[in-house]
Amino acid sequence: MQIQNIQNLLRELREDNISGANELIDKALEIIKFQLSLTHDPKKDIKEEMMVLSKQIIDARPSMAPLINTIGYIIHDFEIINKEIIEERLKQFLVDKQKKKESLELLFYRFLKENKRIPLKVMLISYSSTIINLLLKNKQFNIEIYVLESRPLLEGQRVAETLSPYFKTHLIIDAAIGTFIDEIDTVLVGVDSILIDGSIVNKIGTFPLAVLANTRNIKVYAVCDLYKYNLKSHYGYSILISEKPIKEVYNREITNKFLEVHNYYFDITPAKYISGIISDLGVLGIKEFLEKVKKTLPIEWFKYFINNKKI
Questions:
Q1: Active-site pick, 26, 45, 174, 192
Q2: For residue range 253-291, what is the model confidence (pLDDT) as tens digits?
Q3: Which residues contact 53 (CB under 8 A, 6 or more apart)?
Q4: Could you list the residue range(s) of the whole structural domain that residue 67 is in?
């Protein structure tokens, strides 16, 4: 029953297509806490069990950089892992997470204060809980928001409903970016992960939005924290964008062998189209952000993790 409960939690983590990174990290932490509850001796070495569970969590969301970095924070740099150690790391993780959140909030506030256009017209794509929470923290600013619907799951509707009580908000179809781009002052995009070359993995449509904005000299800022740095990319692994169920975009039976239907949730935007990254490390260019991340994150643990044949 206990093993089944963990498998159910892992399945929920794997199949969640709605929650943002913060919510998914919370789910992963609950899985770890559940595993700890099965251990009665706080001094017992449970390194093998934690490594296996960590791999299962990472495999549930293999492209999710913040989840990998969260696991790294909790299990890195230990010869022995026991319940007592992990519980202490979990407490410290929450403290550090709050500090990163407060730092990002302050830097985002300064960013808005320095962009003095009234109203500041901002275009968003998809649902980024980070961007939404930052905007809601700054309701005193006169901001007008243009939200792309973000097919196929239409997360833009949720964004518009959340922000429109506080900001003038336009919900537009993805194909209308060309119609509205000349009204925009800046583009803010969330981040699924940042690759070693500085390119950004985010919701499908981010790439063409960034390219179009660049043709109009409109700055595109990615908003995230340092945990979005992708350690798989860092160690040379290719980042594959998997296809999703075609029924989400074409719900008829396909009888024509020449018809292929494609459904992707993510695309990759090259670093040259990103003006900067607003993060807990500062408002930085891509190169400077990467340099700071590599000095800040515990990176070496993941090399051991992926080379360990026992897991």
A1: 192
A2: 999 999 999 999 999 999 999 999 999 999 999 999 999
A3: 6, 31, 32, 35
A4: 2-100+299-307
